[in-house]
């Protein structure tokens, strides 16, 4: 975990102010067992670190189904934020809102504000290609391209016109080959894969093990120089050894990048994250605080029941 400076302050405020989205304040957490109590009290979670992402009054609907219910939260930069909660509570939906991947789902409708840096990404003129460069994503199942290890990493920078190598480079005289070599090595080192694949750069990525493929997907994500990396259960398809490598990697990445990770594995959230957001049924954010607090002394009885395995 990175060294985070945060303060939690218990406050009582009128219901109308819940999740009002003051970006300086962070989000609410609640200890409520009923909607009435939920409206009456919450914990402000203030970050001294700058927010990489500020979410205000976010709702998501799939047709008539309300999947995310009025969530406001700040995600501090260069740290690991874990999203946990039972199946179907909206974790992946929320994650996909952070780089507008829900746009790809016809029935999805998103309301509210998501600021990445200073930009509200739900305003009309957002360039989605640039956004997904800044906010990369790693999925549950490793999904490398059926291309060489090298091409997996160079693909994004080539596509964005940052590298003239490969076919285009050959036509132009291969000017950027050395830069590409350096990029490939840097990204593979950053994703703790270099030692294992440095002599296999031209082999098809589909020949790597599942854990290696997932680290390659992380390397591919790093190649376009993101600020934020979203991970949706990145280790759930992997064995314990590969999982441990991914966990170590996530903690290292948080020294340079903002990482938001959905996980079903509460021990994993406790091990790797700086702050944890607990979603419960109905797409509500029930509590959001420093990870130690969530696992050792949560405000909400429902969260305590969940993290101690009494339900979910
Ligand atoms: N593409 C979709 N179309 C319609 N409804 C969807 C879609 N994706 C998710 N939902 C619904 O939205 C709700 C939240 O789903 P989501 O996958 O975000 O939850 P989750 O907490 O990530 O679940 P899990 O842990 O099982 O992956 C669920 O009721 C789900 O059925």
TrEMBL record:
Polar residues: compositionally biased ranges: 1-11
GO BP terms: phosphate ion transmembrane transport
Annotated keywords: ATP-binding, Cell membrane, Membrane, Nucleotide-binding, Transport
Residue runs in coiled coils: none
Domain annotation ABC transporter: ranges: 53-307
NCBIfam families cross-referenced by the UniProt entry: 3a0107s01c2
PANTHER family per the UniProt record, alphabetical: ABC TRANSPORTER I FAMILY MEMBER 17 (PTHR43423:SF1)
Protein name per its UniProtKB record: Phosphate ABC transporter ATP-binding protein, PhoT family
Source organism of the structure: Natronoarchaeum philippinense
Lineage: Archaea, Methanobacteriati, Methanobacteriota, Stenosarchaea group, Halobacteria
């Amino acid at each position: 975990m990175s060294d985070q400076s945060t303060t939690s302050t218990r406050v009582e405020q009128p219901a109308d102010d819940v999740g009002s989205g003051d970006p300086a304040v962070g989000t609410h957490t609640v200890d409520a067992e009923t909607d009435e109590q939920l409206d009456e009290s919450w914990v402000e979670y203030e970050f001294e670190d700058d927010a990489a992402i500020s979410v205000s009054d976010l709702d998501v609907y799939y047709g008539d189904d309300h999947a995310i219910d009025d969530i406001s939260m700040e995600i501090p930069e260069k740290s690991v934020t874990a999203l946990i909660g039972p199946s179907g509570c909206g974790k992946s939906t929320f994650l996909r809102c952070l780089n507008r991947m829900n746009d790809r789902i016809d029935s999805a409708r998103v309301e509210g504000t998501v600021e990445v840096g200073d930009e509200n990404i739900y305003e009309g003129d957002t360039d989605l290609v640039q956004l997904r460069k800044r906010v990369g994503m790693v999925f549950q199942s490793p999904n490398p391209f059926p291309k060489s290890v090298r091409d997996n990493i160079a693909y994004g920078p080539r596509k964005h016109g940052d590298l003239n190598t490969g076919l285009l480079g050959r036509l132009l005289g291969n000017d950027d080959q050395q830069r590409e070599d350096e990029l490939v090595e840097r990204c593979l080192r950053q994703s703790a894969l270099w030692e294992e694949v440095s002599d296999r750069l031209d082999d098809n990525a589909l020949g790597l093990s599942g854990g290696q493929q997932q680290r390659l997907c992380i390397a591919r994500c790093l190649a376009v120089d993101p600020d934020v990396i979203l991970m949706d259960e990145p280790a759930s398809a992997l064995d314990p050894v590969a999982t441990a490598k991914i966990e170590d990697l996530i903690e290292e990445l948080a020294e340079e990048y903002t990482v938001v990770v959905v996980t079903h594995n509460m021990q994993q959230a406790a091990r790797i994250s700086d702050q944890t957001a607990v979603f419960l049924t109905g797409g509500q954010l029930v509590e959001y605080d420093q990870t130690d607090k969530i696992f050792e002394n949560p405000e909400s009885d429902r969260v305590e029941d969940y993290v101690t395995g009494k339900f979910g």
